[in-house]
Amino acid sequence: MTAVSPIIPPPVNTSRNRWTLIAVCAGTFMLLVDVTIVQVALPTIQRHLGASFTDLQWVIDAYALSLAALILTWGSISDRFGRKRVFIAGLAVFTASSLLCGLAQSINMLIWSRALQGVGGAAMFATGLALIAQDFQGPARGKAIAAWGATVGGAVAIGPLVGGVLTSGVGWRWIFIVNVPIGVVAIWFSSTKMRNQMDPGARRLDGLGLISFSAAMFLLELGLIRGNSLGWSSGPIVAMFCDSAAGFLAFIFIELHQTRPMFDLSLFRKPGFSGVSLGTFALGGGMFALIPYLTLYLQNDLGFSPLGGGLRLLPMTVLTFLVPFIFRAPIHTLPPGVVLGGGIAITAGGVAALLAVGPSSGWTVLIPGMVLSGIGIGIANPAIARVGLGVVPPERSGMASGLSNTFRIGGLATGVAALGAVFQQRITTSMSASFGAHAAALGRVISSAGIKAAAHGQTKIADAARVAFVSGLRSIFVIGAIIVALGGVAAACLVRSKDFHSATKRMSAPEPAPPVATERT
Question: Which is more confidently placed, 264 or 369?
Answer without folding.
Answer: 369
